[in-house]
C-alpha cells in the first residue's frame, strides 16, 4: 500500500486534570503543599481511617464552577458526589470521591487559536459579528449555538472545509466542545525509590482536581498543544489553578484515533488513550507518535479498525519517545459508581451562578482582543500583559490617566524587566497606577525621552515621588533649546571625528554613523536632549560639512 | 448496679455517693459478670478510676461539672476512642488504635461521663445476634444460652445485667432497638442526622445512627440530650436545635393517636409477642390514647430493600480495610494483589464477607439498575408510606422483633432466617425516622419482649414522651434478670 495515497485525518479529544488552587484539601482541612516530607500533610479523613467523614471545601467548588463558566459550560443547579471504586495502594479508601452522572459543568466550548486560517474565525465568545469591538477579529464562522456538533468545527471534522496553512500569527480558532467538567479528589503517590518495595506518600491524597473532558474536536498534535497552552492560560488567569507542570498540577490524557481515506472509503483506527502526560511537549509528541503508529498498524493489518479492536490505554515513554500498551478494554475496571452517602448534594441557585459569572468577568481571549484594539497594542503585547490578571488590571487603570500605546511599550520593556529581575509580576512591583500612567504620559508628551523614562522607572522602584518630580530632580526633562543642543552636537562632532568622516565619505556606514553620533549627543546631554531636535541638528551639520567638502 | 443514670447523677452532685464509688460498683459488676456474658471487647478500670477521682475532686472543690459527671458508661466498639482499641469485633481491626475520638465520645466526656470500655457487637455491626463477633458471642443476661440480639448486643447485655446504667450503640437496621427488646431495656434510634456519625465506623452510611441504651426512657432522653446536635464534621448531621427531651417527658398525653399497621402483625409474628404488644396498646387506650388503623403497604419490600442498600454501602465502606495502611495484613503475600485478597480473607468473618459480596454484586455494572437503583426507588416508597401514616397518627406502635431471643447457634447457618428477624426494624432506617424499643412483657419462658414506637423525623421529643407514659403505667422496665442481683 502506498502511504502517499492515504488521506489521514487525526481525531483527538482531551481529558485534563487541573489541580485547583485551594489552601486545603477537597474534603478535609489538611494544607496542600508541594514537596513536603512524605505523609506530613495528612489527617484521619484523608488517610481514610475508620469512622471519618468528608466535608466539602466550598472554595474548591467555586474555582471549579468559575472554570466551567469560562469554558462556557452549563452549570448544574443540582450535583452530587459519587464513589468510584478500585483498589490501589495510593487510594486509602479504595474509592475516589468524584462526580459521575451529574458533573457540575457540561456542554461547553473553548475556542483555541490555531495556525490554520480555515478552521474557523469564530470569536472567542461566539457572539454575532456586530458584538465584536472595533478592530477585533472577523466573525464569519461565529456559531451562537456553541454546540460542537452543529458548529463549524464539526463540519471540519468531516473534512468538508478547505484547509490551509497560514503564517506565523494565529488567524483562526478551533472551537473545542467541552463534554463535561467535574470535581474529584486526587490520589496519593506510590514511590518506587527502593528496590523491591513500594512506599506510599499520601500528602497529595484529597487534593481537589477539576477533570475536563472535550469532544474529539482537535485535528492535529499542534492543535492539541495549543489547546493545552490556552487552557493553562485560562485557569491561571482565573486564579483557579497555579497550573504548574513541574508540580504536576496539570495532567493530560489525549484520546487519539485516525480516519484514513483510501480508495474512496474511510477507515477509522481504534481509539488509544495516552495516560498521564505532564507537559505540553509530551502531549504533542505522544499524539504525533500515535498518529503514525495507528496508520502503520492499519497498513499492516486491515482489521486494525475501531469496531474490531478494543479501545486501549497506552503510556508515554518520554525517553524513547514511544507509547506503550498498558491495558485493553477487556481488562477495564468496573468502578461500581454509586452516590456517596457521606456527602449531601450541592444545590445552587441562579443568583449564586450569576455571582460566579461576575467573578469570572471578561475572558483572556476576549480581553486580549479588546485591549489590543482599545489601547493600540499588538496582539502579542496584549497577551504578554494578560499573562497575569492583576498586571492587566493595573495596566487598564494606568491607561486611563496615561498614554496607552507608550504604557504598553513600557510594560513590555523595562517594567517587565524589573519584574523578572525581582521574580515577580509587574503588579507585584507595587507601583501605583497613577504613577505608571504619568510616566507614559510625560514620555509620550516629549517631556522626557525613552532613555530618561527608563532611568525614571528605576528611581520609581525605590521612591514614591511622581515621575515628573523625579525627572526634575534628576535633570531629565528634555531640552528643546536648540542653542544648547547645538553645543552638544558640536562637542560630539569634535570628539568623534572618525564617525563624522564615515558619515560623510562612506555611504555604507552613513546610517550607522548617524546613529552613533545621536547616541553620543544623548550621552553628553545626560539623556536630556530631545532626540528629534538632535536628529535635526545632526542632519543640518552633516549637510553643511558635506557642502564644505 | 440497679441505679439509673438520673439517680447516679443526683447522688454524685449532692455528694451522697461519689463518682469513685459508682465506678467501683461498675467495675465490680463487670468483673463478676463478664466471664459469663462476654459483653465487652475491652475496658480500662485504671483510666475510669482516675477520671472518677478527678470528678470527685472537682465536686469537693465546688467546681462546675457536666450533666453526666461521674456516670459510668460503655460504648459499642465501632465508636472510635483515643483510649483502647476500636476493633469493630473484627480480626482485621484487632489491634487498631483510633487516633481520634468520635463526636459522641467527645460529647459524653465533655459532659463528665466516664467511659469504662467498649462493648461487643456483630463484626462491623453486621448481624442481629452478636454471634458474628471475632471475639465470640455475647450472652443474654436473661438466659445465658440465648443471644442478646444485635448488633449492639454487648451494650444491651451490659445495661440489662447492671454493669452500667446506660451505654451507646449504633442502629443500621435495628441494632439498638432489637437488642434492647431482647434484653428487656430501653433503646432509641434517633432520626438520621440527629446525632453526628463522625467516629462511628461506617456500615451502611445512609442508615447508621448512634443512640442510647438505658434502663428507662428518662435516662435515654438524658443521654440523647448530650449526644444530639450539629457537628460540622458530618455533612449529614442536621443543624436544628436540640430540645430538652427530659423536660418534656411529664407532659400528659392528650388525644394522642397511635397507629396500628396490620402489616406489622402478620405471618411470622410469635403469638406471645403479639399478645404483649396488643396488651401495650390497651395500656395506651386506658391512658387516653386512640389507636388508629393505618397502612404501610410497602412493608413487604423492606427486608429486600434494606439488604441491597446496606450491603452496597458496606461493600464500599469496608474497601478501606486492605492491609495496606492499617489493620491486619497477611504474613507473606505473593504480590500486592495478594496483600488485598489474603488480608481481607483472613481479616473478615463469614457474615461480613457475605455482605461485601452481596453489595459488590448489587453495584456491579449490568446489575446496578436491577438491584441498587430499584432499591433506592423502593426506599422512596417506604418513606412515603410513613409520611402518609404520620399525617394520620402521632406515632406507630408495633413489635420490635417478631420473636423473643433465640438460642445461640440456632440460626447461624441460616442467614436468610436471621435477616427476616429485622422485618420490623429496618424500615425506620430506610425512612430515616426515629424509633424506640421499650420492654412490654415476657414470654412464658421468661424472655423479654419489646414494644417499638416509631415517630416522624425529628419527633424524638414526642416519641420519648409517649414511651415514658407507658413506663409510668407499667413496671416491665424495672425488672432485672436474676444475674444482675448477684
Notable features of this structure?
heterodimer, A: Arc Repressor Mutant, subunit A, 3 domains, 17 strands, B: 486 residues, alpha/beta, Amidase signature (AS) enzymes, 11-stranded mixed beta sheet
Query: So how many helices of chain B?
Result: 17
Arrangement of strands in the largest sheet of chain B: 1-3-2-4-6-5-10-11-9-7-8
Radius of gyration of chain B, in angstroms, nearest whole number: 21 Å
Strand content of chain A: 15-25%
CATH topology of chain B: Amidase signature (AS) enzymes
Structural summary, described in words:
The complex is a heterodimer of chains A (about 550) and B (about 475). Chain A is an alpha+beta fold and about 550 residues long. In chain A, strands 1, 2, 6, 7, 10, 11, 12, 13, 14 and 15 form a ten-stranded mixed sheet that branches. Chain A has a three-stranded antiparallel sheet with strand order 5-4-16, with no helix packed on it. In chain A, helix 1 (about 60-70) crosses helix 5 (about 350-360) and helix 8 (about 390-400) crosses helix 9 (about 405-420). Chain A has helices at about 60-70, 150-155, 220-240, 280-300, 350-360, 365-375, 380-385, 390-400, 405-420, 435-445, 450-460, 465-475, 480-495, 495-505, 510-525, 530-549, and strands at about 5-20, 75, 80, 80-85, 95-100, 105-115, 170-185, 190, 200, 210-215, 250-260, 265-270, 270-275, 310-315, 320-330, 340, 345. Chain A is elongated, with a radius of gyration of 30 Å. In chain A, a hairpin with a 4-residue loop joins strand 14 and strand 15 (about 320-330). Chain A folds into three domains: about 15-255, no CATH class; about 360-475, no CATH class; about 480-549, Arc Repressor Mutant, subunit A. Chain B has about 475 residues and is α/β, with parallel strands linked by helices. Chain B has a single domain, classed as Amidase signature (AS) domain (Amidase signature (AS) enzymes, Alpha-Beta Complex). Helices cover about 40% and strands about 15% of the residues of chain B. Chain B has 17 helices and eleven strands. Chain B has helices at about 5-15, 20-35, 45-60, 105-110, 155-160, 175-185, 215-225, 245-250, 270-285, 300-315, 335-345, 350-365, 370-390, 415-420, 425-430, 460-475, 480-485, and strands spanning about 40-45, 70-75, 115-120, 165-170, 185-190, 210-215, 255-260, 290-295, 395-400, 435-440, 450-455. In chain B, helix 4 links the parallel strand 2 (about 70-75) and strand 3 (about 115-120). The radius of gyration of chain B is 21 Å and the shape is globular. Chain B starts with a helix and ends with a helix. The relative contact order of chain B is 0.14. The chains are: A alpha+beta (about 550), B alpha/beta (about 475). The interface between A and B is large, with 29 and 44 residues.
